[in-house]
């Protein structure tokens, strides 16, 4: 039983760490896409910038799943 608990704990830690490292990669992709002046409406650009900022805030707060989800919305608008 101890082996199962230890294994489960290790897998959970690994998954949270993976999300933590995924956020900066997504933020970089968004920043690179924005640097290319994408053909977006003013409303879309505002939304992407807001989602990018919210995603970074979630990441810094340790809410990595929220960060990944939020950054994913921005990347979808950008077509990344």
Structure characterization notes:
This protein is an all-alpha fold. The chain has one domain: Substrate Binding Domain Of Dnak, Chain:A, Domain 2 (Up-down Bundle), CATH 1.20.1270. It is 85% helix and 0% strand. It is elongated.
Short structural description:
This protein is mostly helical.
Whole-number count of domains: 1
Which spans of ≥5 residues are poorly predicted at pLDDT below 50?
none
Basic shape: elongated
Q: What class do helices, strands and sheet pairing give? A: mainly alpha
Number of strands: 0
Oligomeric status of the shown chains?
A: single chain
What is the top-level CATH class? Answer: Mainly Alpha
**Average of the residue pLDDT scores:** 85
CATH fold-level name: Substrate Binding Domain Of Dnak, Chain:A, Domain 2
Layout of secondary structure:
Layout: H1 2-35, H2 42-60, H3 64-78
Helix pairs in contact: 1-2, 1-3, 2-3
Features:
single chain; 80 residues; mainly alpha; Substrate Binding Domain Of Dnak, Chain:A, Domain 2
